[in-house]
Structure formats: structure tokens, C-alpha cells
Amino acid sequence: MELWNEGVTCHMRGDFHHAITLYGKSIDVLPTAEAYTFRGWALRMLGRLDDAIAECMKAIEVDPTFGNPYNDIGSYLMSRGDLDEAVEWFVKAKAAPRYEPRHYPFMNLGRLYAAKGMVQWAIREFDGALAIEPGEPTCLEMLARLRTMLN
């Protein structure tokens, strides 16, 4: 836990290389879904999307109930433009028993549907996010934009 926490500290400072090393040492001591997921996130920050996805897959192997790596895979695929492939990962994140912040996959799926021009579907996802996290500013802003598109 100490190594993982040190990795998070480095990560938040933007020292992704050192964070990756510390996450790896943490995994050597005790492989956790969190350490793999965060190592994936750090790799993504370095532009290594395929490696980031591979780390998330390892996280899922360790703990399939942990929703964060599902959402992260969806986000990484979306950033690559693989929107159709990303959908299933956001759906899996929404269904995961252990996930915080729970509203993120709803927001990401809302963004994805908005990008595809699926306005009603996007609205449904942002409404779902607001049911979990009332008043979330990004959701409110996106819903206002999407609803004007319907008029």
C-alpha cells in the first residue's frame, strides 16, 4: 500500500515514469487491480494507449468487480476514435459492483453518444450520471446543449 501511495503521489505531480516504477514495485509485492489500473493511467499519460489497455486488462483479471479499468479502457478506446468498441466497456463499468466515482461511465457514454449524434441516448446517460451525482456541472452543461439540439 505504501508503494502504491507513493506512486499516486508521483502520478499527481506529473512524474509518470517514477509512478510507473512504484506501481510496478507495488504489484511485485501484492498485485492489485488498483495498481494495474493506475499504472495503465500513467502509461496513457505518456501516450502509450495499447500498454494502458493491457494494464487495465490485468486489473480486470485480478478483480473483475473493480469498475475503474473498464471505464478506463472505454476512455482509451474513445480517445483513439474507436467509439463503437468503447461502448461495451462503459456498460461494463456501469455494472461493476465496486466503482468510484460511479457517475463517470455514464458521463463518458453520454459523451460518446453525443459524438455519434445519438442525442436522446446521450441525454439518457447524462441524466443517469446526475441521478448518482446531482448537480455535476459537466452533465448539466452537456444536457443543456443536447436539449437545445432537440428544439
User: Strand-and-helix sequence, N→C?
Assistant: HHHHHHHHH
The CATH class of the largest domain is identified as Mainly Alpha
Average pLDDT metric: 96
What is the domain total for the residues? 2
Distance linking N and C termini: 52 Å
Which oligomeric state applies?
single chain
The CATH architecture term of the largest domain is: Alpha Horseshoe
The residue fraction in helices comes out at over 70%
Question: What is the CATH topology of the largest domain?
Answer: Serine Threonine Protein Phosphatase 5, Tetratricopeptide repeat
Q: What do you see in this structure?
A:
- The structure is a single chain.
- The chain is an all-alpha fold.
- The chain folds into two domains: 1-99, Tetratricopeptide repeat domain (Serine Threonine Protein Phosphatase 5, Tetratricopeptide repeat, Alpha Horseshoe), CATH 1.25.40; 101-151, no CATH class.
- It is built from nine helices and no strands.
- Helix 3 runs antiparallel to helix 4 (49-62), helix 5 (68-79) packs antiparallel against helix 6 and helix 6 (83-95) runs antiparallel to helix 7.
- The protein is elongated, with a radius of gyration of 16 Å.
- The termini are far apart.
Features of the shown structure:
single chain, mainly alpha, Serine Threonine Protein Phosphatase 5, Tetratricopeptide repeat, 2 domains, elongated
In short:
The protein is mainly α and 151 residues long. It contains nine helices and no strands.
